[in-house]
Amino acid sequence: MIWDVHREEIEPEEVLARQLARDVVRWCRPEQLDEARVKELTRGVARFCFDAYQRPVFDTDALSAFLCRALWCVGEKRAAMRWMEVRAERVSFRDTALELCRHGDGPALLLNASALGAVRCSTWMSAGNANVWVLDFDRLWREGECLELYLPTTLHPLLMRLSGVWHDSRGQGVLGLRGCAGMARRLARSAGSGSGVRRGMEELRVFCAKTLEKAAQRGHWEALPEVVLLDL
Predict the structure, then answer these.
(1) 7 to 1, 53, 114, 134, 205: CA distances (angstroms)
(2) d(Cα 183, Cα 109) in Å, to the nearest integer?
(3) Which of 84, 87, 93, 224 has the most CB atoms around it within 10 Å of its CB?
(4) pLDDT for 158-195, tens place per residue?
């Protein structure tokens, strides 16, 4: 589904805000926000969308991620999850986003990554009751992003937030890495390094494993998620 806000003779940003406000009141039943505050919140989301994308048409799941994040950040966690349940278009995105809401350490970064397909739970890879998640570097990467700071400022906080999905299993599970080859090439070019792609892929795997080890120490897990490369 595509949201097209060129349907009324008022500012497109206001059209989007009103549509979102009506749907939040109808579907989410916020517990703390009155109608006036809902309108204020949805105006903020609409303004963010227009400032960030400079266009009046938005993908439903990406827009759902922004609104879910906004509701979550003002303490309306149940309303945020209800929004995802009824408004997310793709089933895979909905299920992943809800799982992140239930177990992840806040959806602020995760939901946006999930909307792009960069983070997702995987059932077809799962063996037995293994808790399997996939991180896709090709989808996470954004052109123009500072590669020198990519690992500490993008990947590390993402993994720390994602680590909540292994909390209930006490660390039992798997993190599959996809798109490592392309990411390793970008990092090598940025650093002027002549190291091979295979070595760079392994360095990414080790970085992810060490980050999850920190999460394990913080959460007192009994095990560590296995980190595996999926594009060998």
Answers:
(1) 16, 19, 29, 39, 48
(2) 19
(3) 84
(4) 899 889 889 888 999 999 999 999 888 888 887 666 66
Could you write out the DSSP letters of every residue in the chain?
A: -EEE--SSSS-HHHHHHHHHHHHIIIII--SS--HHHHHHHHHHHHHHHHHHH-SSEEEHHHHHHHHHHHHHHTT-HHHHHHHHHHH--SHHHHHHHHHHHHHSS-STTHHHHHHTTSEEE-SSS--TT--EEEEEHHHH--TT--GGGHIIIIIHHHHHHHGGGGTTTTT-SEEEEESHHHHHHHHHHHHT----HHHHHHHHHHHHHHHHHHHHHHHT-SS-PEEEES--
Give CA 18 to chain center in angstroms: 25
Residue 113, burial from CB neighbour count under 10 angstroms (0-12, 13-18, 19+): buried
For the chain, the C-alpha Rg in angstroms (whole number) is 19
Task: Give me 16's structure tokens.
Answer: 């989007």
> How far is residue 170's CA from residue 108's CA, in Å, rounded to a whole number?
23
The C-alpha atoms of residue 230 and residue 146 are separated, in whole angstroms, by 25
Q: Which amino acid is at 119?
A: V
- Amino acid in position 205: R
Residues 108 and 156: beta-carbon distance below 8 Å: no
Which tens digits make up the pLDDT trace of 1-28? Answer: 555 555 556 788 888 899 999 999 888 8
Q: Are 18 and 25 in contact (CB under 8 A)?
A: no
